[in-house]
Design goal:
With 282 residues, this protein is of the alpha/beta class. Helices cover 36% and strands 18% of the residues. The protein is built from eleven helices and 13 strands. The strands form three sheets. A nine-stranded mixed β-sheet has the order 7-6-5-8-4-1-11-12-13, with helices on both faces. A two-stranded antiparallel ribbon has the order 2-3. It comes from Candidatus Dactylopiibacterium carminicum.
Length: 282
């Protein structure tokens, strides 16, 4: 990545015209201090964690949502939710370098498909909105819960009460705080993606906020159908030149997705974004 592109990305993130989209890769350096075990974030890591460290059948190892559906059938939906809450809310973790770096910028709108709380911690002390994806709810016309934080605590609000005056943290696959809710199993994804396609997974004020934005995919692989389908609808209404993606060694499916959305491929490690401009090759 050259210095001119680096400067453009940083300026866009600070101005709010570029929206960071965070994937499991940003958590690669996160470990539990007592054991130095890595935080499970990728599909493979989550499957092993869910199954007490033991591999499942090749068919189930393909994607976390399949494995979660299998566990849900055997032990109930709460077994999956308890695992995710234990992992992300009850286990101490070190900080991600990317999250510490992003904390200094604090963009006005961030999309994070991870289920951990590091993004929320980065905005502690700063008033903001939290959009938490959810699925299989009855009696609701949409598939999210909306909270406002005064910088110390979250309060649930209705979408009509929100305005475009605070940073927005969008956690489409859920998070344990302030109340544990997750998109995890195949059934969750089917319901959530269906409602996303119908326009019920994104608050109205966020639909307005996102118009004409460009996106920067950071640590987010797009080789799985679930991630591509979720991002398809979340970035709806993007600028004609919809952004950039850090994707070393992209697959054919990833290239196709990026080309369809007119997203520029950066075949480089996203950590180049955190380097000082003078250290970048020109």
């Amino acid at each position: 990545m050259d210095a001119a592109l680096h400067a453009e990305l940083i300026a866009g993130l600070k101005a709010g015209s570029i929206v960071p989209c965070l994937g499991p890769g940003v958590l690669e350096d996160v470990v539990s201090p007592p054991t130095q075990v890595r935080m499970p974030a990728t599909s493979h890591e989550l499957i092993l964690g869910l199954n007490d460290g033991k591999p499942m059948s090749p068919k189930l190892m393909y994607e976390f949502s399949r494995a979660a559906m299998n566990i849900e059938h055997k032990r109930g939906r709460n077994a999956v939710n308890r695992f995710l809450t234990r992992t992300y809310a009850e286990t101490p973790w070190s900080r991600s370098a990317l999250h510490d770096w992003l904390k200094e910028i604090r963009p006005g709108y961030v999309i994070d498909i991870n289920r951990d709380t590091q993004l929320l911690d980065s905005y502690a002390g700063l008033p903001h909105y939290l959009v938490q994806g959810c699925a299989r709810l009855s009696g609701r016309g949409y598939r999210f819960h909306l909270y406002i934080s005064d910088g110390t605590a979250y309060t649930r609000i209705e979408p009509e009460e929100a305005a475009q005056d605070l940073p927005v943290l969008f956690k489409p696959l859920g998070t344990p705080l302030p109340v544990p809710r997750y998109i995890a199993s195949d059934a969750d994804y089917v319901d959530y993606i269906t409602e996303l396609m119908g326009g019920f997974g994104v608050p109205a004020f966020v639909k307005t906020l996102r118009r004409g934005k460009r996106y920067l995919f950071i640590g987010l692989r797009l080789s799985r159908d679930t991630e591509r389908m979720v991002m398809d609808d979340i970035i709806y209404g993007a600028a004609p030149d919809a952004g950039w993606a850090f994707l070393p060694e992209p697959t054919a499916k990833e290239r196709k997705f990026l080309a369809r959305h007119n997203i520029t491929l950066i075949e480089d490690d996203f950590r180049a974004l955190m380097e000082e401009p003078e250290s970048l090759a020109c």
